From TrEMBL:
One of its GO terms (molecular function) is glycosyltransferase activity. It is an enzyme of class 2 (transferase). Residues 303-324 are annotated as: Disordered. Gene3D superfamilies: Spore Coat Polysaccharide Biosynthesis Protein SpsA, Chain A. Keywords: Glycosyltransferase, Transferase. InterPro entries: Glyco_trans_2-like, Glycosyltransf_2, Nucleotide-diphossugar_trans. Residues 305-317 have a biased composition (Basic and acidic residues). This is Glycosyltransferase. Its EC number is 2.4.-.-. Pfam families: Glycos_transf_2 (PF00535).
Length: 324
């Protein structure tokens, strides 16, 4: 048996489409169960989940405290079987999704963490500036046709990931200080934190391209303001303690320099009237604003998250957002 876990906060508008796709899945050998956690929703999420009780091997839970990772950790208490699959409430899996993940686990018994393919499901064709300028992996958790094979843990993302249950028996759980928390300014990188810690303990990671889901992208997620908000949240996730750096008011000087330089580039692009340059500069500015924000609120706690295995420490394109 394997267990599939997802959390949903105010997802009633798209959750039914996701659960309809889950109801069409081919069951893997040994069977499966689905655990859905309503993470303090104020819409009809719980009612949507209850409507699938007869169509899916479903366990419904409720976590009142906002925070996707708190919801996932609660769901892990209900996990059964040798494999745990994590996903989101806005994905459309191929019918053979679980079959492919189960086969990958059998084919590579020395691998403990698996990531599947994540393709976009656009509500309308994206504008050229999105496809040309936006880092689609970071913003929409897309795998961009990555090939099968071993991979870095930072390339395994929340909409489509699987872990052997044996790796969780020691109590390994998601960091509840990271990831979606009911606000628009959370720190990204929650699944990456989770997978990098497993890799640091010796777990091997692999990308399984044939295990595919499509990630639903809502119209508001194609707006410039939302995309730049992702840059800010990614910057928060990118920050790490740097006690060796020269600091000004507790903030490493190089961060202040990056913010200033990005602001200068944005101002120049605005004067030139170059929309593409202005977006690139605005992305960098919002990213470094996020780094600055995190450095500032942690200036009195320089040893916090000092573990060298922290995700994305030097690769800002690898952090998940995951939408998370």
């Amino acid at each position: 048996m394997l267990t599939v876990i997802m959390a949903s906060r105010n997802g009633a508008g798209w959750l039914k489409e996701t659960l309809d796709a889950f109801a069409a899945l081919h069951p893997p050998e040994g069977g499966w169960k689905l655990v859905v956690v309503d993470n303090g929703s104020t819409d009809r999420t719980s009612a949507v989940v209850r409507g699938f009780q007869q169509r899916l091997p479903l366990t419904a839970l409720h976590q009142a405290r906002p925070g996707k990772n708190a919801a996932l950790n609660l769901a892990l208490e209900e996990a059964e079987g040798d494999l745990v699959v994590f996903t989101d409430d806005d994905v459309l899996p191929d019918p053979d999704w679980l079959l492919q993940l189960r086969q990958a686990a059998a084919d590579f018994p020395d691998t403990g963490v698996f990531g599947g393919r994540i393709d976009p499901c656009w509500p309308r064709p994206p504008a050229r500036w999105i496809t040309d300028l936006v880092p689609l992996g970071l913003v929409y958790s897309l795998t961009v046709e990555r090939e099968d094979g071993p991979c870095d843990p930072q390339w395994i993302w929340g909409p489509n990931m699987m872990v052997r249950s044996a790796l969780l028996e020691g109590g390994h759980r998601f960091d509840e200080e990271v990831g979606p928390d009911g606000t628009m300014a959370y720190r990204m990188g929650s699944e990456t934190t989770f997978t990098k810690e497993l890799a640091a303990q010796g777990a091997r990671c692999r990308h399984v391209a044939r295990a595919r889901v499509r990630h639903m992208i809502r119209p508001f997620q194609m707006k410039r303001s939302w995309i730049l908000g992702r840059a800010f949240r990614a910057g928060r996730g990118y920050w790490e303690p740097e006690p060796e750096r020269v600091a000004i008011l507790g903030v490493p000087r190089h961060i202040l320099r990056e913010v200033g330089e990005a602001a200068g580039r944005w101002a120049v692009a605005r004067l030139r009237g170059n929309a593409r340059e202005r977006f690139r500069a605005a992305w960098d500015l919002n990213f470094w604003r996020g780094v600055l924000h995190e450095a500032w609120i942690n200036r009195a706690r320089p040893k916090r998250r000092a573990d060298a295995s922290r995700p994305g420490a030097r690769d800002r394109t690898a952090l998940s957002a995951g939408p998370d």
